[in-house]
Design goal:
With 489 residues, this protein is an alpha+beta fold. The chain has eight helices and 27 strands. It folds into three domains: 86 residues, Single Sheet (Histone H3 K4-specific methyltransferase SET7/9 N-terminal domain), CATH 2.20.110; 80 residues, Histone H3 K4-specific methyltransferase SET7/9 N-terminal domain (Single Sheet); 247 residues, Rossmann fold (3-Layer(aba) Sandwich), CATH 3.40.50.1460. The strands form three sheets. The chain has a 19-stranded antiparallel sheet, with no helix packed on it. Strands 21-20-22-25-26-27 form a six-stranded mixed sheet, sandwiched between helices. The N terminus is likely disordered. Keywords: Repeat.
Amino acid sequence: MRPFIPLFLGCLLVACGESAPLTPTDVVLPDGSRYQGTLADGLLQGEGRLDYPGGSHYQGQFERGLLHGQGLLQYADGSSHQGRFEEGQANGEGLLSDADGTLAGVFRQGLLEGKGHYRSNDGAQYRGAFVNGQFHGQGDYQDENGARWRGEFEDGQLQGQGSYEDEDGNRYQGGFKQWRYHGQGLLQRPDGSRYQGQFRRGRYHGEGTLTLADGTTRSGTWHNGRLALDAQGQRQPDPLELALLRQGTLLQRAIDTLPASTPARELYTLTFAGDGQQSVFLREADYVSDLLATEFAAHGQINLANHRDHLADRPLATRENLRRAIEALAASSGPEDLLFLYFTSHGSSDHRLALEQPRLALEDLSADELAELLRPLAGRPKVVVISACFSGGFIAPLRDDDTLIMTAARADRVSFGCSEESDFTYFGRALFADALRQTDDLKKAFELASAIVAEREQADRFEPSEPQLWAPARVLLRWRLMMKSRSGA
């Protein structure tokens, strides 16, 4: 919020006698301002309007040449202050509005002081104590996404004891410093894990115990989010370093388990969960892999996934792993087979899939890069499904007569459902948990899924994501033939 600009108006207009009655006037002042209102003893007094050269104006009460009483000060940039003024400044109940939002409460010398309410134009809000116009004291802040901080604020930030909760299901109670977990606290995550102990700058740091959802505990001394010493004081290896040592073996094991093609038409699949900071993508990819295996008799499968808890037991969703996996699928499958590739992650407006693995710096995967990685499968019938915001932007670089493409959204629209506690994105649930359980016709399944998504988005009052489809006839035919072979028809 912009600070209130104090205004002093001590302009002697006319030499009047003592105790002169209020006199209406319309006059231009020496600084170019125009005053329309009443005077007393040559000073602005009573009701009036003052227009400033820069386009700002004040409408309200004056006393002895100063803004004093109830009034509205309207600035040239569209911001305003409405409420009580004393001796030229905002003092008392008032409402300050500008391009960022509104501040309401009691003002002292132009700044909010004591109990007040802040609301931003994007939906964030704060209720609680203010000092010098900043959050200070007990308060409750909620951002535009529904995340909520409550506790002791200082100089505009949560400092000291408080709590945090968000719509993903994270819950925290304990100390804070500059909005982040700091000091002693208890953090509960939506995956069922909980950590009780010391934090520093939002990470486990110091003595603490992490309890996983299955009841497994890890206790000792933590350093920047990892267990450095166990409860007996023994130094612990860095899980990231161990995971990196194992990644080559994990991927090779997955490649080695791919069965060779047979004369029959076979289905080979790949799932790719790109963002490891939220569990929904891993859950969704695992569901899709299981569905394709159990309901569609997948012959060979490779699953790549990023996730904060699976550094050392699953091949990561990286460019190089994806390249090697695609080359392996090309080598193992035959020309009579069909490939099904599923990608799920966050997406960006410049058409990139987010690749996020905590403590690793991975660049996002662009639509053009994915097209290049798919070259070993050129001329091979394949289905590519992408569940991500703005995923329609992947169609143009990927499409050809051998590639059927489904995306969760238009090139210029977001998709929904990618929160930590969710089992599916909106599109992932609609297509795999609903539509493909009702029909094995890909085109009909897409149409049904699109209708389900549209209905859900309308109920939630979201802008329609408008899933997109590129469906070459030869891929649809190959899929139908495979479904007939599977059913024995």
